[in-house]
Amino acid sequence: MIRAMVPSPALFPALLGQHWHALAAPVRRMHGEEAWVRARGSVRVEGAGHLPARVLRRWLGLPEPGAGQALEVTIERHAGHEIWTRRFASGCMRSRLAASPDRLRLHERLGPVTLRFELCRAGDAIDWRLCGGRLLGLPLPRAWLGSVLSRSGAQGGRYAFRIDTRLPLLGRLVAYRGWLEVVDE
Question: How far apart are CA 165 and CA 19, in angstroms?
Fold first, then answer.
């Protein structure tokens, strides 16, 4: 099968610059230059069980808690942005990733919310550091965004990830961790 490539530079290699080649091979494959990627694996999802957290997860398209969920991720790369579709056992989460206008940060749009991240190399992994966000295009006070801990790395030769999102007053909105393997189809 011939794989199409996104016109260089692709989103993650461009944002990480000289640090790109120090990343683990599974990380470079997931975040690289192929125009289309499909990966399958397993994920454990946690989150607060109270009504406000459940409603907010549903509104943002975030997954519901559950251990050992099958996960399929497709990444469609276009010039200037990527579309990530994550199919959990409990639903589908879709986001659009693009570079900031100054090409220094990553913007991820989840429904009406856009989060801004600084990508940093941490050994052979990527740490996503939350810098700010917007709701329906309006800036949100940084304190309202709480904390988002996110790492994309490798474990046992597979792509591995951890995300933990906590909001003021709500607590843990969603946390998920797991692994993925790219499927050649």
Answer: 26
Give me the CATH number covering residue 103.
2.40.128
- Total of domains in the chain: 1
Task: Give the side-chain half-sphere CA count within 13 A for 115.
Answer: 19
Q: Is residue 86 part of a domain?
A: yes
CA 19, CA 147: separation in Å to the nearest integer?
25
The token pair that represents 62 in the structure block: 């975030």
Q: Enter the pTM of the model.
A: 0.87
For 2-32, write each residue's pLDDT tens digit. 455 555 578 999 999 999 999 999 999 999 9
Structure token pair of residue 103:
């090409």
Measure the CA angle with vertex 142, ends 140 and 145; round to 5°: 80
In a domain? residue 2: no
pLDDT digits (tens, 9 = 90+) for 58-102: 888 888 898 889 999 999 999 889 999 999 887 889 999 999 988
Give residue 62's domain range: 11-180
SS (H, E, C) 170-183: CEEEEEEEEEEEEC
6 in a structural domain: no
Do the domain assignments include residue 1?
A: no
User: Token match 């933990």: residue?
Assistant: 164
